[in-house]
Amino acid sequence: xxxxxxxxxxxxxxxxxxxxxxxxxxxxxxxxxxxxxxxxxxxxxxxxxxxxxxxxxxxxxxxxxxxxxxxxxxxxxxxxxxxxxxxxxxxxxxxxxxxxxxxxxxxxxxxxxxxxxxxxxxxxxxxxxxxxxxxxxxxxxxxxxxxxxxxxxxxxxxxxxxx
Length: 163
What we know:
The protein is 17% helix and 36% strand. By secondary structure, the protein is α+β, with helices and mostly antiparallel strands. The protein has one domain (8-150).
């Protein structure tokens, strides 16, 4: 499946000192993202993304920020609600194509134990498959989290709806 805002970067092409880049979504990509996130429109999506490989050469620290103009429908009146969404993000990824599997680790897992330790993200990074880090999809995922799920028009009063 092709992502709406795809900016793939092979992990073997990431400079060992890290790299920063500005990503700008095309109008077609913005329209596809608007459809994905059920918005009337998304315009002017611009992101700054930095990737820094860690010393183990398989873990990547991704940081960045983005801004976009979002038009949604008010959940009460269906009027257009226009907002500027700005956010910063941080994520960790591990390229499993560079990891040597250990049978012992698999044997240490107790299948009858339902409890799992929740570790900080830098200790338990998200998995990269096929050696490709899609910077655009990372931005899209954080954009989706930043969009207001219950937009209300400015003229809506609390008495206009029941919580």
